[in-house]
Amino acid sequence: MSFTDNIETIFETIDKDNLSAVRESALSSFKTLGLPSARHEEWKYTHIKTKLPETLRLVASQESQVASKLKYFNSIKGTKLVFINGVFSAESSVIIDQSGLTVGSLKELSSQHEAIFTKHFNKATDISKENFAALNTAFAQDGAFIYVKKNTIVEAPVFVFHIYDHASADIFTQSRNLIVVEENADITIVEDFQNNNGEKFYNHVSEVFIGQNAEVNYSLLQLHNQHTTSVNYVEARLEKDARYHITTVTLDGKLVRNNINAYMDGENSLATLNGLYIGKEANHIDNHILVDHRVPNCNSHQVYKGVLDDQSTGVFNGKIFVQKDAQKTNAYQSSKAVLLSDEASMNSKPQLEIFADDVKCSHGAAIGQMSKNELFYLLARGIDKETARGILTYAFANEIIAAVKLPELRTYLDDKLKEKLNITI
Amino acid sequence: MLEIKNLHAKIGDKEILKGLNLTVKAGEVHAIMGPNGTGKSTLASIIAGKEDYEITAGEILFEGKNLLDLSPDERAREGVFLAFQYPVEIPGVSTTNFMKAAVNAKRKHHGQEPIVAKEFLAMMNEKRQLVELDKSYLSRSINEGFSGGEKKRNEIFQMAMLDPKLAILDETDSGLDIDALRIVADGVNKLKSKNNAFLVITHYQRLLNYIVPDFVHIMYDGRVVKTGDKSLALKMEERGYDWIKEEVGV
Description:
Largest sheet of chain A: 10 strands, mixed
CATH architecture of chain B: 3-Layer(aba) Sandwich
Distance between the termini of chain A: 51 Å
Largest interface: A-B, 27 and 29 residues
Number of helices of chain B: 9
Radius of gyration of chain B: 18 Å
Oligomer: heterodimer
Largest sheet of chain B: 6 strands, mixed
Distance between the termini of chain B: 30 Å
Strand order of the largest sheet of chain A: 2-1-5-7-9-11-13-15-17-19
Shape of chain A: globular
Helix content of chain B: 25-40%
Radius of gyration of chain A: 21 Å
Helix content of chain A: 10-25%
Structural class of chain B: alpha/beta
Number of strands of chain A: 19
Order of helices and strands of chain A: HHEEEHHHEEEEEEEEEEEEEEEEHHH
Strand content of chain A: 35-45%
CATH topology of chain B: Rossmann fold
Number of domains of chain A: 2
Shape of chain B: globular
Number of domains of chain B: 1
């Protein structure tokens, strides 16, 4: 018995929101794909099937606890959209109005902005191939809708918080964002997942459309999810001259799978994809990155760094496709992981597929240990071993946080990292 | 302050120190000279507590305590300082944060509260001027992109910050031009007191014109084979090491 057995019965009960056709097609696709087994190449090192409970409920609409409040980020100003167990909470949210900006619940706003919604919804994900994207499309009820009109520079950052506080251990929350940023617009988005306690499961898809010469700074944070098993998709499509900077910061997680995909649809677009992950105990953190260069003259730059301690496991899979027409592509990829214990492990797979002949692509993947010379240098100044290890981990990891553009967020993450490493420098 | 008795040490199967004796008292400056591969830097590393060596015989007493029982960080907090021959570059940690952690580790060890920010900054400012280190270096990552001379000045700056009882300078002068050498030596001379001691390991007599030693020890093949005053260093410079080998019969 698994939730896939009675998935159609569950499907009958959910609200389709005028999306019956696409949902049905997604459901059918998911039924064909099923949950990925260990034989599935993209899930070779992440055996999620065995980590999900046997039976699952996919929607937790009635379980939100009214008392749920934001526990973190209260000191940083911005629009704050709060979703509790996947359901939008208007009373917990704060929206800073600005002309040209529409933010709120996807469920509520999709009909008001039907043309935008129809044009973009489910256009960045591939539900015929991606199991969890298909599942999400069939079942997702709500998430953030962010629509930035042409020439709008969004002044305050938009935070999207997902708070999980339900008491049931069998809920697999499906949430869905749609982010559309038109020509010459600019926005900073910070998305964070907060699990207040107990085991939680969620599957989240965020589709991001970046118009001509527009810029999106997106941070996906997994800071407070020690007991969470999650699948995350951020699927971005970039038009001509668009700029996209995404940073994922994973400081804990029972099992985390991030699929960060960028499709370079327009010439001269730029994507930087940075990631930091810190694994302790039995954490399992998997980052699957895809950059698809489809047209000439685009730049992409990925830097992923991880530190794995105890029995934790890391996975990095970085694909760069350079299609036949994508001449003058400049693509860079770097993956570095440090193992702090004999029981920690890292699986790293860079994958470059280049079909154009005039391109510049480089990549490097390194898995190593902490430098003994560096450690001794710190010890020789009187710093105890645990702190010295923390400082060196910080030194290694800090590059990713230092590149975060929003200053208040940078400071916040810097503090969180230090807290995680138990250092006070 | 420091008493090394019949110290034997090896790395892998190779014996490097073969019965070394050395006594250093507070207020003294000792120089250790000798040809390459004779064990000078090994001695410095062993006193500081580097793990790579196996001590097969002998002991090191520091203020009466058995130093070999202490971890490297405990030794440092007790007042042993090693100025590295090759200071390590650590991208991502500023010298300021590094020193704050080190100063507070020492204070904690001695039962003191963490240093207050204002006092720490004043201390940094004072000590960096001893070695003419520009303020900007302190906010940069440790030694990253520093020239050879800057790295050595940073070592002496750290020494000043931590105010050790015993400071070991492991070839601090190697590769320095004369101006940098003067700066480093001036820094050391300003830190000298009747309560601390210096062990200066060098290839070249030149440094000892600036840091004047009370004793000069010649090391050869894992032992101190001759001890004299500063004139011994001059003699070494003039005549090389061969006469020593003959004189001590090795």
